Amino acid sequence: MKALVTRLDSFGDVLLAGPAIRAVAARADTVTLLCGPRGAPAARLLPGVDDILVWDAPWVGFDPPPVGRGEVEQLIDTIDADTALILTSFHQSPLPAALLLRLAGVGHIAADSEDYPGSLLDVRHHRAPHAHEAEAALDLAEAAGFPPAGDPRLRVLPPPATAGLTGPGPYVVLHPGASVPARAWSPERCAEAVRELSAAGHRVVVTGSAGERDLTAYVAGEHALDLGGRTGAAELSGVLAGADAVVTGNTGPAHLAAAVGTPVVSLFAPVVPAERWRPYGVPYVLLGDQDAPCADSRARECPVPGHPCLDTVTAHDVVTAVEKLRGEA
């Protein structure tokens, strides 16, 4: 049986699909993961994936491409699967992807869908109302005939050794960036947290993408090691795996930290529900006002002046949370 799993959005979303993908891989001969360009680096880290198709879907993402008939036809011609699982967030429809998969000749398609699917789905599943995204994907996989396989926590392929980047000795990672601005703690607060963590005796490593080098340099200052722009996805997994704790917002590295088993101090803006998107399967401390006016708004830019859901969190709060997690470990 040739199986295809679809998760078309971001890095963190693809990581959260990992347990469901492993469930499919336990019963299928091959598993192809169809993902978007932002999710592709995470796809390459997942156990159970035999092949990856990358396609920028025009109904997904912050800057979706125009609809191109040629690109659609090429994707339809490329897909070769007997059965498919379409994974989406709770607010997304699987039906555009289901239509393409039907046109590609996929005979059995399963997805969560509140909308009437007509002949597009063979398994129309209804997710539990408060399920974490990872659990919702596992529930759908089981409804499609792929029960959980082994440990249901997030997992990635073994990380590379990164002591050459981080240096010797224990450390805490602070990752200040976020793909959605409303989910990011302010640079000033991040820099203050670095200083207070350092003053409390913690060695701090600051991580970020190549496009976040100015941010990481500012946050690290003279008190932390700046690895901004120096890690790809695999290297970042190694850096996070070696940390005592990771301090970050609700963004991809939070889920990558969970996938390598590292506790997370989660600076969680409630623009999406924490019950669905919190760090999964590892010890964590959730910081941020979950009852702020922006709650459940899915806003990309903070709609409330002063960003009160996160900027009421202090550097002292972060130090206390890190020491709590280290003590539990």
Write the topology of this structure.
Blueprint: E1 2-7, H1 11-16, H2 18-25, E2 30-35, H3 40-43, E3 51-54, H4 69-78, E4 83-86, H5 95-103, E5 108-112, E6 123-125, H6 133-143, H7 163-166, E7 172-175, H8 187-199, E8 204-206, H9 213-220, E9 225-226, H10 233-241, E10 245-249, H11 252-259, E11 264-267, H12 274-277, E12 284-287, H13 308-311, H14 315-328
Parallel strand pairs: 1-2, 1-4, 2-3, 4-5, 5-6, 7-8, 7-10, 8-9, 10-11, 11-12
Give a nutshell description of this structure:
34% of the residues lie in helices and 15% in strands.
Structure description:
This protein is α/β, with parallel strands linked by helices and 329 residues long. The chain has 2 domains: 2-143, Glycogen Phosphorylase B (Rossmann fold); 163-328, Glycogen Phosphorylase B (Rossmann fold), CATH 3.40.50.2000. It has 14 helices and 12 strands. A 6-stranded parallel sheet has the order 3-2-1-4-5-6, sandwiched between helices. The longest helix has 14 residues, at 315-328. It is globular.
